[in-house]
Amino acid sequence: MTTNAKFCRILATLGPASDAEDRMLSLLKAGVNAFRINFSHGNHEDHQKRFETVRRAEKRFGAPVPILADLQGPKIRIGALKGGKQTLAFNDNLRLVLGSEADEDGVLPIPHQELFDVLKSGDMIMLDDGMMRLKIEENDGKQAIARVLVPGILTDRKGINIPGRRLPISALTQKDREDLDFALTQGADYIALSFVQCADDVREAKKLVLGRAKLVAKIEKPAALDEIEDIIALADVIMVARGDLGVELPLEQVPVQQNRILRIARSAGKPVIVATQMLQSMIDSPIPTRAEASDIATAVYRGTDCVMLSAETAMGRHPETVVAIMSRIIQEVERDEFFWQEVHGQAGDPEPHSAEAIAVATRHTIDLLNCRGIIANTKSGSTALAMARERPRARILAITPHIETARQLAMVWGVTPIVTPDFEALEDVIQAVPNFLREHLDMKKGDRAIITAGVPMGVSGTTNTMQILTLED
Question: Would the pTM of this model clear 0.85, i.e. be above it?
Fold first, then answer.
C-alpha cells in the first residue's frame, strides 16, 4: 500500500451518515486520516460501537487510524421554556432566572449560577450560536433583566454565550470526566478538551489523562487567546474551533486569530487542526461553494497539519464526496510551488536540541539532493514530529514498534506511520528501509531517502544520526 498523496491530513467526524464499517473504509480510501467521536451526542454504548467499528475498518484498510474523542465541555444552555419555545421580539424585556425550567412567557430559565455571578449591566448575551442577542439591563445575582436587540424564536436547551466574560467554571464537567475515563479505556488516541479558557484548564486535563493519549486544546473561547502561548506550550495539539470562537469573537477577527494561532503553534512545533464549517454547504449539496474551497486552501497554505469535517461526514448526504473534494483541494494547493515558500516562510526558530538540528539538516539536504523520502525511526513519535515541524518536501515514513505511537502520528503533517519490529541496531534499520520505501512511498531505483535515528538504539528522544540512502534496485 502506498501512502496518501497529500501532506495535510483530514479528520472526519463520525455519526449516522458514517457509522457503518464499509462507509468508514470508503472514507479512509477517499482520503480520511483520522476519525472524531463527538461526545456531545450519543451515549457510551453508541461510542463503544464506533470505537470497535473504526478498529475493524482500520484492520481492513491496512494502516494506523487514530481516534479523537471530543469532550462536550461546559456548554452553557437555556433551560426548558414554557411550551418548548418563545418568540423574542425586538426591544422586549425578558427576565432571566436561576433555574432549569420556566412556566410563564417572558422568562428564560438559566441553570447556571456562574453566569449570574459575572453578568453586569451592559453585557451582551448571545443565544443559539448568536442567532439572537440580548443586552443586560440589571442583575441582582439571582435574576437579571435583559432587552432583546436581535429577535428570533428561541427553543429549549439552546446555547448561551457571553462575549468578553470569563466564566468561573472548569473546562471539565462531571460528564466530561466520565467520558474521558471511558474514552481512555476504549483506546482513544487523542482527547479534545472543549471550551478551554486558560492554561490551568489544560493542566487539569493533563493530570487526568496521564499521558495515555495526546491532549488537544480546542480554542473556541476568546478568553483563551489571552494565554494562547501558555496553552500551546502545555497542549500536545491545538484545534482552532471556529464555530464557537466566531460566536463570541467579532467575525472579522476570526481569520486573524486563526492565523495567529497557527503561527505560534507552528513555531512551537505543535500540530494544529483547523475545524468547523469547512464544507458546510455539502451537508446537503453535492458540490461546495468557491468560498469554502478557498477557506480550505488558505488553511493548507498556512501549513496546518489537519483540517476537520464535522456535520459534513457525521450527518451529511455525501460523506465520501466531501472527503474526496477536500482531498483534491489539499493536493492541488500542495502542487503549487508557492505553497512551499509559504510554509517554509512561517517556520519559527528550531529549539537547540539534537533532534531539531537533525530535522533542519534533513530539510536542507532534501532540497539539495531532491530526496523523495525520510525514514524517522521513533518510539515516542518525537523524531517524526521534529521532522514534520520543518515541513520538508518529502514524505516522512515513521517506523515505530508501538501501534499507539503510529496512530497518533497518522494525524501529523506529512507523516506515514508503520508498525515495525523493535530494531536493536541502526544496521537493522538500514537493511529493512529499502522495502519500506518501495511499499509505502512507491520509490524506485535511483531515488534517494534520508534515514534519521538515535544511536544508541532503543533510547527515546535521542535522535542524533542522519544518513543518505540511494535505492539500488
Answer: yes
